[in-house]
Design goal:
about 425 residues; alpha+beta; four-stranded mixed β-sheet; 13 helices; globular; binds uridine-diphosphate-2(N-acetylglucosaminyl) butyric acid
C-alpha cells in the first residue's frame, strides 16, 4: 500500500499562500541544538518528514524532545553520545550535521552514512577534510556504512573549501564553535540558511563572524547555552509557489518571503513574461502577460539560480515559446524530472549537464514518479497545468520537504487529493 497524489489539471488558481519555514535551515538547526547545555526552543518548525527523522536521532542521544504544532523544544540535560546507527540517519542527507555537532560537543561521533535524494554523486569529502583540519581522525567502515570520527582536541585552524558547499560550511562551523582558538573557513557557501544557523549558534553563545560572506571566522568558546530562535522562510518553497503562480495563477500572493532571497528566480520569471510586484514580505504574481518566452538558466551557488528550483522551473519551461536551455553546475545529472515530464508530452532532451526544453507543449495527465523531492515539485506543477488527471507516485519524497502542499494548493483552488493504492 502506498500513497499517491492525484491532480486534476487546468484549474486557474488565485488567493494567498503563506510560506513555511526553511527546510534546509531547519534540518541544520535541529542537529545544532545538541551543542547547547540547556533548552533550545525553535519556532516556526515546518511539518515535514525530515523533522520527524531528526527528532528520532535526537531521542537516540537521550535528548528530551517536545514536538509541538509549530515549534520544537530540545532539552539536552540527559544527553548521551550514543552511536547513531538506526535507519533514521539514512532517511535524509542532513543527518550528517550530527557529525559536526557531536564532534564539537564530545570530540567523538559514530554514525551511519547519511541518505537523502538520489540525483547523482553527493560526496562529503569537504566535510571530512574540515574535521581532519581541526584535528580529528575519520574512519569509515564501508561494510557497515558507518563513520567513526574522533579527536583528542579540536584546534582552530584555516580551512579552504575547494567548493563552496552548503553542507561542509555548516558542518565545519558546528565542529569549530567549541574548538580551541580561531578557525577561519574560506570560500564558504553564502546561502541564507547558513546565516540562520550562525544566528542560532551566536544566540547559544558562539562567536562567529562573516556568515553570508566568503569567509567565516569562529573563535571557540567553552560552553554554549540554551536560547530561542525563529526559522527564516523557505525560499525554495516560495520559489516553487512563484512558479506555480506563473503557470496557473490569476492573482496569487506569496506571503512570508524574503524577496531578496529569490532575486535570481524573480528576474528569470520576469524575463519569461510573468508580471510580479514585491510588497513588503510578500510577492504578488499577476500571472503571465501573453505567451511565456523561453529562457536560459544556469544553476549556481547562492545568490545565483538555485539548483533546487531548476527542476520546478523545467516544468514551467514546457509552456514557454521556443527552446529553453538549462545548465546544471551544482549536480550535473539532476534531471530525472525530464523523463517524467516527457511521459506527459513534454519535449525535454537531456545531455548532462544540460537540458533543452522545447515549448509550448500541452501536457497530458498520466502516472509519473516523484523520483526525488524537487522532481516531486516539478510533477505537481506539471499536473496543475496538464489536461486530465496526473497520478504522482513516491510522494514520500515530497513529504520530506513541502509542508502541507496539498492544503495550500486546495486553498488556491486546485483539485488535488491523496489516495492509497495497492503496491
Ligand atoms: N560537494 C563535494 N564534496 C563535499 C560536499 C559537496 O564535492 O564534501 C559537491 C556536491 O557534490 C555538489 C556541490 O558540492 O556538486 C554542492 O553540494 P552542497 O554541499 O552545497 O550541497 P548539500 O549541502 O549536500 C544542500 C541542500 C540541497 C541543495 C544544495 C545546493 C540541505 C540539506 N541540502 O545540499 O537541497 O541542493 O545544498 O544548494 O541543505 C533540496 O532541498 O532538494 C536539496 C537537495
Amino acid at each position: 500500500m502506498a500513497e499517491v497524489i492525484k491532480i486534476e489539471g487546468g484549474h486557474e488558481l488565485s488567493g494567498t499562500v503563506r510560506i513555511s519555514a526553511a527546510k534546509n535551515a531547519t534540518v541544520a538547526l535541529i542537529p545544532a541544538t545538541v551543542l547547547a547545555e540547556g533548552v533550545v526552543t525553535i519556532f516556526g518548525v515546518p511539518d515535514i518528514a525530515d523533522v520527524g527523522a531528526l527528532s528520532t536521532l535526537l531521542r537516540e542521544l537521550n535528548i528530551d524532545v517536545t514536538n509541538l504544532e509549530d515549534h520544537i523544544i530540545v532539552d539536552t540535560k540527559h544527553i548521551q553520545n550514543a552511536p547513531l546507527i538506526s535507519e533514521a540517519a539514512s532517511k535524509l542527507r542532513a543527518s550528517y550535521y550530527f557529525m559536526g555537532a557531536l564532534l564539537g560537543r564530545y570530540k567523538e561521533v559514530t554514525m551511519r552514512m547519511p541518505g537523502g535524494c538520489d540525483f547523482g554523486p553527493r560526496p562529503i569529502d569537504l566535510h571530512l577534510k574540515g574535521f581532519k583540519a581541526l584535528g580529528a581522525t575519520v574512519d569509515y567502515d564501508p561494510k557497515e556504512g558507518m563513520y567513526h570520527i574522533k579527536a583528542e582536541e579540536l584546534r582552530g585552524t584555516r580551512i579552504y573549501l575547494d567548493f563552496a558547499s552548503v553542507g561542509a560550511t555548516i558542518n565545519i562551523m558546528l565542529a569549530a564553535v567549541k574548538a580551541k582558538g580561531r578557525t577561519v573557513i574560506e570560500n564558504v557557501a553564502k546561502e541564507p540558511e547558513i546565516i540562520d544557523v550562525a544566528n542560532l549558534l551566536t544566540k547559544m553563545g558562539a562567536r562567529i563572524r562573516g556568515a553570508g560572506t566568503d569567509t567565516i571566522t569562529i573563535d571557540g568558546v567553552e560552553h554554549l547555552h540554551g536560547c530561542t530562535h525563529e526559522i527564516i522562510p523557505d525560499r525554495i518553497e516560495a520559489g516553487t509557489f512563484l512558479i506555480i503562480a506563473a503557470a496557473m495563477g490569476k492573482r496569487i500572493i506569496v506571503d512570508n518571503v524574503i524577496p531578496q532571497h529569490l532575486d535570481a528566480l524573480i528576474s528569470k520569471l520576469q524575463e519569461m513574461g510573468v508580471e510580479m510586484e514585491l510588497v513588503g514580505d510578500s510577492i504578488v504574481v499577476y500571472g503571465r502577460k501573453g505567451q511565456l518566452k523561453a529562457v536560459d538558466v544556469k544553476t549556481q551557488i547562492y545568490p545565483g539560480f538555485a539548483t533546487d528550483l531548476q527542476q520546478p522551473m523545467t516544468a514551467l519551461m514546457t509552456q514557454a515559446q521556443g527552446v529553453s536551455h538549462v545548465r546544471e553546475t551544482i549536480y550535473q545529472t539532476r534531471f530525472k524530472q525530464c523523463e517524467e515530464l516527457n511521459r506527459m508530452g513534454a519535449k525535454c532532451q537531456t545531455e548532462a549537464p544540460m537540458a533543452h526544453i522545447e515549448g509550448p507543449t500541452q501536457l497530458m495527465g498520466c502516472d509519473v514518479s516523484a523520483t526525488d523531492l524537487r522532481c516531486g515539485a516539478a510533477m505537481i506543477i506539471a499536473g496543475l497545468m496538464a489536461n486530465g488527471v496526473t497520478t504522482i507516485h513516491n510522494v514520500y519524497h515530497i513529504d520530506r520537504g513541502y509542508d502541507g502542499i496539498e492544503g495550500k494548493l486546495i486553498a488556491l483552488g486546485a483539485k488535488i487529493w491523496r489516495e492509497v493504492e495497492e503496491d
